[in-house]
Amino acid sequence: MRLSEERIEILAGRIADRLLDEELVDITLTERAFMDLVETWIAADLAIEEEINEAAVQRVESYSRKIEHGSSEWETLVEKAKEELARSKGYVIR
What we know:
Layout: H1 5-21, H2 31-61, H3 72-88
Helix pairs in contact: 1-2, 2-3
């Protein structure tokens, strides 16, 4: 995962605070419980992205013609594979 648990907690707190301060959400649970939900959503989203990244690398590694890791061709093929895998899951990577 690209973000530490501590960083996710900080980010979730900021998102939850902003949503609540601007009254963009109406919750029936405690603010802490809402922040915990936001943390869970962020972690789940990052896990999906990590799965896509790993699957893209595996796809490129499985090609019959071996491509040098880190080369521009490698990077291009991995990015294309990530886009295809993300699209198939209904996920957007930016």
